[in-house]
TrEMBL record:
Its EC number is 1.17.7.3. This is 4-hydroxy-3-methylbut-2-en-1-yl diphosphate synthase (flavodoxin). One of its GO terms (biological process) is terpenoid biosynthetic process. [4Fe-4S] cluster binds at C309, C312, C355, E362. It is an enzyme of class 1 (oxidoreductase). Belongs to the IspG family. Pathway: Isoprenoid biosynthesis; isopentenyl diphosphate biosynthesis via DXP pathway; isopentenyl diphosphate from 1-deoxy-D-xylulose 5-phosphate: step 5/6. Keywords: 4Fe-4S, Iron, Iron-sulfur, Isoprene biosynthesis, Metal-binding, Oxidoreductase. Converts 2C-methyl-D-erythritol 2,4-cyclodiphosphate (ME-2,4cPP) into 1-hydroxy-2-methyl-2-(E)-butenyl 4-diphosphate. One of its GO terms (molecular function) is 4-hydroxy-3-methylbut-2-en-1-yl diphosphate synthase activity (ferredoxin). Its cofactor is [4Fe-4S] cluster. InterPro entries: Dihydropteroate_synth-like_sf, IspG_bac, IspG_bac-typ, IspG_C, IspG_TIM, NO2/SO3_Rdtase_4Fe4S_sf.
Length: 425
């Protein structure tokens, strides 16, 4: 029994990644064991080229590896090649995904330059066509994707679910000797909609390495159940997302709770956090949250982590909070340049602690950390680098002095010649 317990203790971490077929989207590989990809979506009118270029650029520079744009009418489709060209001229080469509903077949056929400029097409099987037109219009999109050698995401959403399929499954369930709940039938309809559409795409000649599936709902437990079942029934690459997650902390918590569980189970090849921005809010927030989710779970490293204590009665001063905020903001602003100048800097850990209880210990565990004095403590702040105390800061300039030490540490560890210095030591 003890051996089993010890083995369990030694295996902290996620389940092995589900084996999925790799799909290349404009050079970004999704699935097949590759790192989970962060993506986002604009909320601009795509026909407004200036606004769309600005927002795509902001999303890409904040770390979105794929950006989806709405293509809902002729003006939007005509704008796509110009958007692609403008982005490339300013050095933004992020793949663009076209989000199509209702008339995607027509827009792609009428605007071949749009079809070529996009890196992937999103198809919603719930509104690609109705009754007799469904198969024809779906087939048209697949044919165009094959012609331009583009992958597709078959994106099912329970808000626009195929009603014919749902009605048929509900009727079959009602006639069953052991009927399921309406919610269970709904989940099965979502899964079948995606799988049947993918099967049809394959029949039309599309390879499994060109198909990504998503099955989005807005309730956490439903999302977990749908994706767990879908993952067992196919090996397509899976796009995770909680649709209509909501605003602020509610949307963040719901997205992290649902996708965090699935990722821990080894499910998910790309994610999008569908936050509703606050009025006038920053659209890039959804990218930041997605990155933080993956980084805090240990799947990827995007930006140096700043650990800081939450504060208590020992920390009536706000100095440590202000310093942690300033360093975090400085890191985020600097990262676009640091990625080029300091390879590996995203794995850096910084600690800014507020009192003597946990401060020194946490600071020792970080690459570089400071333990600021709490209420009634000696006004001195020990600094630790790579687990060793290297200095004690005092006076009014503690914050500025520590910022300089962080900058020096980054230059020494990650800057030009860092590898040679490590080898020499």
């Amino acid at each position: 029994m003890l051996d089993a317990v010890e083995t369990s203790r030694d295996q902290a971490g996620p389940a092995p990644r589900r084996q999925s077929v790799a799909v290349s989207v404009g050079g970004v590989v999704i699935g097949g064991g590759h790192p989970v990809v962060v993506q986002s979506m604009t909320n601009t009118d795509t026909a407004d080229i200036d606004a769309t270029v600005a927002q795509v650029s902001a999303l890409a520079r904040s770390g979105s590896e794929i950006v989806r744009i709405t293509v809902d009418r002729d003006e939007a489709a005509a704008a796509v090649p110009r958007i692609r060209d403008r982005l490339e001229r300013i050095g933004v080469n992020v793949p663009l995904i076209g989000d199509f509903h209702y008339i995607g077949h027509k827009l792609l056929a009428d605007h071949p330059a749009c079809a070529e400029a996009l890196a992937k097409y999103r198809i919603n099987p719930g509104n690609v066509g109705f009754k007799g037109k469904r198969d024809t219009q779906f087939s048209q999109i697949i044919d165009i994707a094959l012609k331009h050698d583009k992958p597709v995401r078959i994106g099912v959403n329970w808000g626009s679910l195929d009603q014919e399929l749902l009605t048929r499954l509900m009727d079959d369930n009602a006639a069953s000797d052991a009927p399921l709940s309406a919610a269970a039938v709904m989940r099965e309809a979502i899964i079948q909609s995606g799988l049947l559409s993918a099967e049809r795409a394959e029949e039309l000649g599309m390879g499994r390495d060109k198909i990504i599936l998503s099955a989005k709902v807005s309730q956490v437990q439903d999302l977990i159940a749908v994706y767990a079942d879908l993952a067992r029934r196919c090996d397509y690459a899976l796009h995770l997302g909680l649709t209509e997650a909501g605003m602020g902390s509610k949307g963040i918590v719901a997205s992290a709770a649902s996708m965090g569980i699935l990722l821990q189970q080894g499910i998910g090849d790309t994610i999008r956090v569908s936050l509703t921005p606050e009025p006038g809010g920053d659209r890039t927030r959804e990218v930041q949250v997605a990155q933080e989710l993956l980084q805090t779970m240990g799947f990827r490293a995007f930006i140096p982590i700043v650990a800081a204590c939450p504060g208590c009665g020992r920390t009536t001063s706000t100095v440590f909070q202000e310093l942690a905020r300033d360093i975090q903001e400085s890191i985020r602003v600097s990262m676009p340049q640091w990625r080029e100048k300091y390879p590996g800097v995203e794995a850096l850990n910084v600690a800014v602690m507020g009192c003597i209880v946990n401060g020194p210990g946490e600071s020792k565990h970080a690459d570089i950390g400071i333990s600021l004095p709490g209420t009634g403590e000696v006004p001195a702040a020990p600094v630790f680098i790579d687990g060793k105390k290297v200095a004690t800061l005092r006076g009014e300039g503690i914050a500025d002095a520590f910022k300089e030490m962080v900058a020096d540490y980054i230059e020494t560890r990650f800057g030009p010649g860092a590898s040679a210095r490590r080898s020499a030591s």
